[in-house]
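Feature request, filed as a ticket because there's no other form

It would be nice if the structure record came with a short human-readable summary line next to the tokens. Right now we just get the raw output. Example of a typical job, pasted below so the devs can see what we mean:
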Amino acid sequence: MGRPAGGGPLRWWRDIVRGLYRSAVLTGLTWPMPAVSLGVGLGGFSVVRSWSEGVSGPLAVRALVALGQVALVVLWIAVALWIVHALTSRPLARAARRCAERWLGVRLEVTYRAVPQVSRMSTGYWWDGHEYHRSEREARRRAKVHARFHDPQLHWDGLWSVVAGVTVLPVAALPLLCLAGGVYTALTPGLLGSSSYGGSGAHDAYGAHSAYGVALIVAGVAGVAGMAGAPFAWRIFGPLALRFLGPVPRSWPGRRVEELEAIRADLTLTQAAELERIERDLHDGTQARLLALGMSVGAAEQLVDTDPAAAKAILAEARTASAAALAELRSLVHGINPPVLAERGLVDAVRALALDSPVGITVHSTVPSRVERPVESAVYFAVAELMANAAKHAGASRVSVAFAYEQRTLSATVTDDGAGGAAASAGSGLRGIERRMAAFHGRLEIDSPTGGPTHITVAVPCALS
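Raw output as currently delivered:
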């Protein structure tokens, strides 16, 4: 019977070849940091040393010069490593994660900081998510720089490059160095024997053969050691990859600070958009009506003595225009801070809003009393947006809103019989609601299969009044 496929020597050779391949890949992924630091350090040391060779004087002066040499070399290495880190850490870490997925069966998901959108504020400045700028170009450039070089995940990738350079690289490269040293040792004495030991004497011949024999023994030992260690050398990659190639570990304060920064940026953009909407509504609606009202009163003033009937007609039109302007102002104020929300509370405000909806909306509540005003306002506008989405985008015919208060958490669930498929994707209104609720430690839960029905819950921890 033949030997089973994949067993015995065939399996050993396969493990050796696979180990050598993986060792070569890891060597290629981890060499930049130590190689650059060594090369720049040696170059910097030689340059600084040649520069200070002519320095003479007391011992104290020479000591200060030596300390200055060390400081300059360290600074030189730090700058070079920072440049290499900024250029290579992310692509090398991504390649290492692909190797971890193929070799170890471990999928390491990480998230890099996205470039924030820039927006023009009402003051004329541009906001990049962190600071204000005079021009849109400068805001976009600074947003890219901040996202690229202030990303915690990028710095964590740089730490992986440093750690792998002093741990994975020496172990993974050892089998390759043994094989390369063995081949070099096997070939070099033969070449030297043909040239250096080319004498005709017996002593010279004996010395040449002895040197060549010793070289072959050393080459054989090195080659065997390299092939024997190849299947195992790359395995140091496993625990280090799990520790340093995953998402950056962050403490709770760090995560909270990052969340608050994102919330601040989102609220700033939302506030700018709301101010622009209010300004546009005032300019295009109420301001135009008040201007027309003033012109009508002026015309009536001129006609009141010569044509009283025409003046009365103009004043009647002006009264109608003033009523329309008052209605627009009330609608605008209602969108900013609904009076019914301040007077009657969240549930009654949502019921009043449901009366004006084009679809049938039912509102149920088991909340025993009112909640805090900031929470009321945030939940009201979130529910209002969800109701508008159900009517406008989902094509729903029936919508229900249920309020509940359990375990010191206020929840509002909006259910519709629309098309479904709602998701909090980037740039969507649901994502904006989710981020605004995060300012109150709240959450947004979405259950929206294709075809419906859709259940979206806004939950915010709070206390009752």
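Something like this underneath would help us a lot:
Residues 1-6, 191-203 have pLDDT under 50 and may be disordered.
The longest helix spans residues 252-303.
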